[in-house]
Amino acid sequence: MSSDEAMLRLSGVSKTYNQGRENEVQVLNGADLTLAEGEMVALVAPSGAGKSTLLHIAGLLDTPDTGTVEIGGVDYTGLGDRRRTVARRREVGFVYQFHHLLPEFTALENVVLPQLANGIQKDEAETRAADLLARVGVGGRAGHRPSAMSGGEQQRVAFCRALANAPRLLLADEPTGNLDPATSEQVFDTLVGLVRGTGLAALIATHNLELAARMDRVVRLDQGRVVAQ
Question: What are the residue boundaries of the ABC transporter domain, all occurrences included (predicted)?
């Protein structure tokens, strides 16, 4: 894969955390990972192995001790916080195990807000939000607050919020881990449809090996490095 085709490229990424005096934990140790545009990759590893750390570094929420992070061929490793924030808002969408929707706002408003923060006009943001909600089957819930929606519905709204600014990279950390098996399957199908329909690259951390096997590729973390499954 050439660098022109790489939507995400992590090269030699290492990360160590200090946990008290003389207690260092190396979570990542020279990790390399490349995602192509339109590719869905599953990331599997036991709890505590560094999946969340890898996702946070890939999404510019955290910085590596060593190594580089490129998105769309641009090296964001050494940029300041402000430029990283702007890049993260425009290039990256995040989905977490728990939806983290704002409880005081409706489903539509939760998808509109990140667009307003990105400079999109309100009318345009509302139109895009309504379209996204309809595409994932919760258009009829647009005026409901999270407390009035099921867990699966809330996670679908979270997917829409992550894609509201048309990012080129989607990062998901156990996106169906808080759902029952039947709902998890339905929500995962929704996620796959969204990713395939938009052509963005997606890195999805999951414990569910059946879901992982349905992606283009499966990688795992082993002693701080990314290896093929």
Answer: 8-229
